[in-house]
Amino acid sequence: MPADLPTSAPDAQTLPEAVRQWLAHLERNRRYSQHTLAAYQRDLVQLIRLAEGKSLEQLVNGNIRHYLARLHGQGHGPRSLARMLAAWRGFYKWWAPQSGMSANPAADVRAPKASRALPKALSVDLTKALLDAPAMLAQHDPVSLRDRAIFELFYSSGLRLSELVSLDIEYTQNKTHTSASWITLADHEVHVLGKGGKRRSVPIGAQAITAMNIWLSVRSQLITAHTTDSDQVALFIGTRGRRISPRVIQLQLNKLSTLAGMPTSVHPHVLRHSFASHVLQSAQDLRAVQEMLGHANISTTQLYTKLDFQHLAKAYDSAHPRAGRKT
User: Looking at the structure, do residues 141 and 84 belong to the same domain, yes or no?
Assistant: First the structure.
C-alpha cells in the first residue's frame, strides 16, 4: 500500500491511484519532505480540475499548453506556473511509461520566463558592523556566545539555515543517530549535506573558529536532563537543551540587527548572500563560489555577479591590459 499522504493536502482521498502511487514513490524512494509532497499534490489536483473529467492518460501536449495559458490569464505568476509544470512533468515522466502513453505531454512545454530577483546582501562595512556590534560583544552568557558563533559561521561558510541547524559537533554514527552534517575544527572545515542530497565541505574562517571554540567551552551549560542522545551531539542547542530550531536563529539575528542599528532586518539567508558576494568580489572565482554554496547550476551563482557590478567593473579596468581608458 502507498505511504500515507500529507493529511493537510487538498482532496487527499479523491486522488487517482496513479498520483497516490507517485507521491508515495517520492516519499519512500526519493525521501521528499512532507512540505514538498503537499505542494506536488496541490499541483496535481490543479491539473485534475483543469482536465474537467478527462483522465490524466488522455491529456496531450496541447492540453498542457492550454492549461498553462489559462492559468496565466487568471493571474498566476511565472514562478507559480513553473512550479506546477515541474510537478506535472515529473509525474508524467514516471507514469507515462507505465500507463502506455506515447509521450510525456508536459515534456517540451515551457512556463513563462520569470525575472530573477537579485539576492539581498549587506555591504562589507554593514556586515562588519553587525558581527562586531557592541550589543553582542559585551555579552558573555552561553546564549550570546552561541549566537555569536552561529552568525560568524553563517558569514564565514555561507551555509543555508537548514544546513547550519543540522550540524553536529563531530561525525557520529550509532543506533539512534547518524550525522548528516558536522564540523572538524582541527581542519577548519564544515561538512554539510545540502539540497538534493549533495554533500560538500566548506572552509571555516579564523574568526568563526575562535567564536566556535568559545561557544563550545560553555555549551555544556545548556545541556539539561531532557537533552536526547541526538541533541547531545548537536553543535548548536537552545535553552531547553534541544537542537536549536531555525525560528530561534531567525529571531535572534533579527534582534541583533535591531540592536546594531541595521537599516533593515537581517535574515540568515542575507549572511549567506553576503558571504557569496564578498568572496566573489575578492576572488572572482565563480566556480569556487558555486562549490562553496552548493549550487547545482552556475546560473544561480552568477546572480551574485550583478550585486556589485561597479566593483567588478573597476577591477576589470585596473587589471585588463586592453581596458585602459584614455585620460
Answer: no
Contact 191, 240 (CB under 8 A): no
Domain span including residue 95: 17-99
Locate all alpha helices (DSSP H) within 116-168, ordered by sequence: 124-131, 134-137, 142-157, 161-165
pTM over 0.90: no
Looking at the annotation, which residues are catalytic?
Answer: 160, 195, 269, 272, 295, 304
CATH of the domain at 45: 1.10.150.130
Task: Let me know whether 81 and 168 are in one domain.
Answer: no
Per-residue pLDDT of the chain (327 residues; tens, 9 = 90+): 334 443 333 445 578 999 999 999 998 888 888 888 999 999 999 999 999 989 999 999 999 999 998 998 888 888 889 899 999 999 999 999 999 999 999 998 888 776 555 557 788 888 899 999 998 888 999 999 999 999 999 888 888 898 999 999 999 998 888 998 999 999 999 898 877 778 888 888 899 999 999 999 999 999 998 888 889 999 999 999 999 999 999 999 999 998 888 877 788 888 888 877 777 665 555 566 666 666 555 555 555 555 454 444 555 555 555 555 444
> How many residues can be counted in the chain?
327
Largest CA distance in the chain: 77
